[in-house]
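Each field is set out as follows.
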Amino acid sequence: MARNQEKAQSMLNRYLQAKNDDLKGPKQKRPYLATECRDLNEADKWRQQILREIGKKVMEIQNAGLGEHRIRDLNDDINKLIREKGHWERRIVELGGPDYSKAAPKITDSRGQEVAELTGKGAGYRYFGAAKNLPGVKELFEVEAPKQVRKTRFQMHKAIDPDYYGFRDEEDGLLERVEADAERSMRAQAILEWAEKEHERAAAGGR
């Protein structure tokens, strides 16, 4: 009896879903080219759809157990969707809408690195989730620290010239002028202090 009720409920659900789909009309497919869209609201709707698809695939690619081929396919799909998102965002601007490319942060991997030049995948190609640990990819993100070469004592002495010891400091006359100005300032300050002390001494003696 319970089994028959479940079947009846399932049939009713399918009937209601089919009726609802008929009322909505045929499911609209996203245009292949963003330039085919002439309506701003439609363009924004397709952009939102792409964002949902990107989010879904980014979540899926976190699973390292999917296998190398599936992970590579997912990573390619995400990059294609990101490029498509850019096309729709430019189309939205052309239709008089906001410029999402300026307002939204760039989509990058966890390190914010791009390795397009090394992979030949084209400008802006990025790796997400488990794709960063694939053979041949992980090495691209391992930046070797520059080696510091220590100079020998001979090399350090070779770089020392008379300027190091200050032998040519007075050749341009600049140091001499600076010292003369400083000396005059110090002498004037000393005379002023002496005059003030003499004045105080004279005032004290006259009391």
The chain is about 60% helix and 0% strand. Residues 153-205 form one domain. Confidence is low (pLDDT under 50) at residues 114-120. The chain has two domains: 14-141, 153-205.
